Amino acid sequence: MLKRSDFEKIADSIKSKNLDITERSIPFHHGMVKLFYIMQLMDRAALVESVVKPLILHCSSAQEPINAQMTIDTIIFADDCRLESDISKIEEYILSGMAVALFSTDEEYIVINIKKIEHRMIPTPQLTYTIRGPQDCFTENIDVNLSLIRYRLKDKNIQIKKSEVGVRSKTIVAVIYIEDIANKTVVTEIQKRIESIDVDGIGESGELQSFLLNSKMQLFPNIGLIERSDMAFHSLIEGKVLVLVDGSGIALLAPKTFSEFFYSCDDRYDNKFFGLFMRLIRYAAIIFAFTVSSIYVAITSFHTDILPSDYAISLAEMRVNVPFNALMGALTIEFISELLREALLRVPKQIGPAVGIVGAIVIGQAAIAAEIFSPLLLIIASTSLLASFAIPDYTLINPFRILKFILLLFTGMLGFYGFTLFLTFILAQLVSLNSFGVPYLAPWAPFNFYDFKRSLIYSLTMDPKRPQYLSTKDRTRTKR
Amino acid sequence: MKKSGKIFLILVFTLCIPAFAAACADSKDIHEQSILMSICLDKKDDEIYYYAEIANITGSNKDEGKSSSADRKYIFYYSHGKTIHEARRKLYMQLERRAYYGAIRTLILTENFAKEHLVEYLYRLRTDELYRKKTMIVITTVDPEKLFKINNENDISVGFSIEEMLETLDEEGQSFTRTTSRMLENLSSSYTGFLIPCIGLRNNKNSLVGYSVVNGTTINGFIPVEDSKALVFLKTDKPRFFYTVPYKGNEFTIETSLKKRKIEPSYEDGNVSFDLKFDFEAKLLYGDKKTPYNFDDISNEGVTKILTEILKNEIKDAVLEAQKHFKCDYLQFDDEFRVKFPEEFESMDWQNEFPEASVNIDVKVVLSGSWMMDFETDVRK
Hints:
The complex is a heterodimer.
Chain A: H1 4-16, E1 22-28, E2 31-37, H2 44-61, H3 68-75, E3 81-84, H4 90-95, E4 99-103, E5 109-112, H5 142-152, E6 158-165, E7 171-178, H6 184-195, H7 205-212, E8 224-226, H8 229-238, E9 241-245, E10 251-254, H9 265-269, H10 272-302, H11 309-319, H12 326-346, H13 352-369, H14 375-388, H15 394-414, H16 416-432, E11 434-435, E12 438-439, H17 449-456
Helix pairs in contact in A: 5-8, 10-12, 10-14, 10-15, 12-13, 12-14, 12-15, 15-16
Chain B: H1 3-26, E1 33-44, E2 47-55, E3 74-81, H2 84-94, E4 98-100, E5 106-110, H3 111-127, E6 136-140, H4 144-153, H5 158-171, H6 180-187, E7 193-202, E8 205-215, E9 218-224, H7 229-235, E10 240-247, E11 250-268, E12 271-286, H8 297-325, H9 333-340, H10 342-347, H11 350-356, E13 358-368, H12 373-380
Parallel strand pairs in B: 1-4, 1-5, 5-6, 6-7, 12-13
Antiparallel strand pairs in B: 1-2, 2-3, 7-8, 8-9, 10-11, 11-12
């Protein structure tokens, strides 16, 4: 039994740490029960109705002392509560949003979960907008996110393994997968990497992602971002592993290959041939966004021979009064494009269009009128910028945005030779990558016809099997 | 990073910088070059004249040496010297920027120049990487200065104009063209000749006037365009011409297209012979009389017979001209013979064998007369 002096000591210790912990004492026959909680994390109405009120009513009339077990069994109405006896964990429970009831007459205490954290209503997607699909997506509250997943996936084999990451933040991270589908090696690897994280705090899934990468120097993403609950559901069904981080509205998805970054939710919901068409457009978009300004430099400065004569004349006429050479022009205009993109991301929504108009129209028009840039280069840069927005997962385009400048330098110095050389470096790098054991360029390298076909045209009716490169436990989706 | 890794990176970086810098210095933007559209070479008074047509990308060029208004889209320069090199060097001295040969559409050679320097110039093109090997080569019968001046006054590029004209005629099945690479291929065989389109001026417009016959290393004849129908049947894939066939007081206009051509060589007892088979498709378009005419099967047969005879005679004349008059295989019969009899071909002198080869010509014409509907309708009434 907890001694009276120990009980007071613990209570004093909790109060003395300035943790903004609220204390509520309720006396009973020859004893006292103290409730500790953080008011901001508590559903106060539920606390009053389920805990405080029943306790007061009971204690005021009872002629005998109460203990923790008896309180849980017969007095309080809270649905999620348990007995604990480890005194060192009391603070942790309180800080994580639980209410703790300490009894002067018992060495055990009660941990009551009536947490209520303020969060946004279920928002509409901001990263992966779709025309036809559902509009609900994850919020910053992990319980809400779990509810969205469970609402769609009623499989008894779903596994949700929660753990805490961050010595100080104690952020809840949930690894979710379907037991009889997901590849065990991938699940184990993800859990292993999460368990090995040694950091003071994780505030967002992006921070967790940096710990899950294969290498600290990795440029290309091998983990996907999931904002939409329907996409989370589809990914779990495919055999992937989802990682939810409390406090983050974006879940992590692994493994993720290069080709999967081109999938959009609409591909599943719309006509499959339209999906194929759009995928081809997206593949073309990334090639265009990455290479077009370099090709312009190579053709203008090195390999003019490949131009038909009339194009050569038009190009020369456009550039005749331009002071910069092609490389400097392309580098400058790409820099301005990146500046514009960054500015548009950071400015308040109300003045975003104004910045766009100033950047695109005023600067663009003025630059052409002043003959600082060739009109063709401006068209190329703006189309390249536009193409970069066509990729559904923005994390893939980011490395290419950086590499584009290096490619420009290589091409500006060595023409198509440099262009090919640098592309070969990138290709070699991509081929050597993997996402939790799955080859990054699958299904192209290593080539698998079924998956290749599936990477272009997706239809539930045409694809009875799960992607083979994922090596899932259950390889078939439908029984035929 | 390990020390060896750092050293490796420094080494790679050090080696790359000079390579990159060297390549960078060598590059030249397109607008920093003089874009040549056509080149013409002439020989007058024992000197080589070098004419160059250049795209006027600035629109306000006021240099000396050019012979037309600065506002023109194309300006032309010329120079002359004892050799091609000297003439070219003198031309470079007039240019503001480095000459860019990649856009040249047509190489024009005068007959005088071609007679002496054609082979030299073709070999020069083979070694010169600056030229496109698809560039078209033509011979001109006109004084180049006149040719360029007339075109320049009309703001027309000689290079573009000639190339487009020849390509259009080729597509229409009215003519055939020869690119530099094809000519170099022909030149590599010493036993054969080839034809080069010949350009002149008609009503002050560029026009195909015929074909120059190149035998060995020099030009030794000219075939006017009016007599070249059979040549086109022999050398192109889809030739198409209109014939007027007189039959029973009517003159019928017939569109004649070659459907199939087969050249079958044979070699027996040391004699070379060729069986030429032509399948023509003919469409009877119209007659020249209003008189109703029932174009029945007998008429069809009659007209077909006359047309067949016309075509056969034309082809026969064309072959005989090559064999007997020019004594030169510009029809490239050697290609067929060499494939079928490679060993025999190696051991013979084709230059002497070709003129003696016997040629059998078989022409088949299928004439469709459904185009004479109005004539038939009248008779039925």
